[in-house]
Amino acid sequence: MIIESLGNLKHNFPDVSICAFTATSTDNVTQDIMDELKLDNPLLLRGKIFRKNLFISAERRISNGYPQLQSFLSRHENESGIIYVSSRKKTEELSSFLNTKGYKSLPYHAGIPNHVREQNFKMFVNDTVNIMVATIAFGMGIDKSDIRFVVHMSLPKSQENYYQEIGRAGRDGEDSEVMLLFNAADMVMQKQFLQQIDNQDYARHLEAKIEGIYKYSTSELCFHKQLAEYFNDELDACKDRCDNCLNTDSARQDISKESQMLLSAIYKTGQNFGKNYIVDILRGSKEQKLLANDADKLSMYGIGTVLSKKEWFIVLERLLELKIILMGEYSTLKLSEDAVKILKSLMSVDIKSSRLDVDKKVKKIKQKEDFDYDEELFEELRSKRTEIANEKGVPAYIIFGDKTLKHLANEKPHNKASMLEVNGVGEKKFQQYGEEFLSVINP
Are 375 and 382 in contact (CB under 8 A)? Predict the structure, then answer.
């Protein structure tokens, strides 16, 4: 490994000072780095984990998650963002879908030819397109400060990965939003890849990370606080910068009866089928596969029409979280010992009431600016910025950041002297772009 080779530096150059930097690391990883580099009692500096301008939310993905994504994107019209997916194929599919819905997006993954990948990257950085749909191959070293959102369409590999990936949003300090869509099947799929690893200790290490990010996603604790604690940082609950803190409704709903229906359907079909088949039985589906297996003759066939298919999936997710239902090979559903207790009414199950509200209200994720600005003028200034960026072949944020454009739309300078008073505008920037922006402000 490269880091092991770097360990020779201290031996070969004992009098030379060595600095080591890393984006994220737990205490164990930090100690490993110091050991490998043979650093003796070095000065250790660590930044705070909390990013106040990031609003974090996590939702259980319903089907492919596209309707949830569209609802999210409605809050980020004409803003730049990254959407992470789990495979190359899904980058192409989702990008194509978004483009049919009027969004401007491009795919990015390691299978795209280098020259196309570089072109897509430049188009995103220069604001020619707003959205990059990517695998985790995208983002390392990206120099674009005005990314307003990051979406994960499935579970990341670990909290380290997740924190680094959401960290690409809001680097200019402006309000940004990150959303994670997930379900239990993501965890099962990731664990299947671990079977290919020969080193069992390493496989168990990775498995613990997968379970950790799933626990993080399903928890009702502050998302910022959980991330801070993972990296051995201390933080109070954020109060209003994550979904869990913003929606602290403590109301819970008993779902013992619904759980008994699900568990009974799984048991009476021999624990040989997946979630869609089981839910279709409860809802009385006329699917040919069900009818061919005489599922319509089962006692629980059609008894669950009171819940929608989406609601049944949420109930099922809750049972998976509690390990009342287990995922078997090929995603078949299996019963645990606790499942028997529920079937015999010896154990109850409840769920946070808000989780069954499939159609959520729009979240208030943006903090109020400490000044008012002309939003129409702001959009005109953004268009001018994009035009100049395309002409000069540079990223749009290099010209002026969103914060500066908002100040311009607020203060509306009329000449050089007044524009130089605006936060973010210096003599050099004015010489380069000032007159063009003044012509937009004062047509």
Answer: no
> Would you list the DSSP string of 47-72?
-----TTEEEEEEEPPTTSHHHHHHH
158, 212 Cβ separation under 8 angstroms? yes
Find out whether 119 and 54 touch, Cβ atoms under 8 Å.
Answer: no
| Cα–Cα distance measured from residue 341 to residue 201, given in angstroms and rounded to the nearest whole number | 34
| Confidence band for 427, pLDDT divided at 50, 70 and 90 | confident
pLDDT at 27: 82
Question: Does residue 331 come out as left (phi exceeding 0), alpha (psi in the -120 to 50 range) or beta?
Answer: left
Local confidence band at 105 (pLDDT 50, 70, 90 cut-offs): very high
Whole-angstrom distance between the N-terminal and C-terminal Cα of the chain?
A: 60
pLDDT digits (tens, 9 = 90+) for 349-396: 988 777 776 554 445 555 656 567 888 898 899 889 988 988 888 888
CB burial of 308-346 (b: ≥16 within 10 Å; e: otherwise) equals: ebebbbbbbbbbbbbebbbbeeeebbebeebbeebeeee
**126 is written with which tokens?**
């220069």
Tokens 């990775």 -> residue: 206
> All domains of the chain, ordered by start, with CATH?
2-36 (no CATH), 54-246 (3.40.50.300), 252-356 (1.10.10.10), 375-441 (1.10.150.80)
DSSP 245-288: HHT----EEE-HHHHHHHHHHHHHTTT---HHHHHHHHTT---H
Do the beta carbons of residue 431 and residue 419 sit within 8 Å?
Answer: no
CA gap 16, 243 in Å, rounded: 48
- What is the residue-wise DSSP string for 114-175? HHHHHHHHHHHHTTSSSEEEE-TTS-TT---TTEEEEEESS--S-HHHHHHHHTTS-TTSS-
Bridge partner residues of 151 (DSSP): 83, 179
How much is the pTM? Answer: 0.65
Closest alpha carbon to 280 in 297, 295, 268, 293: 295
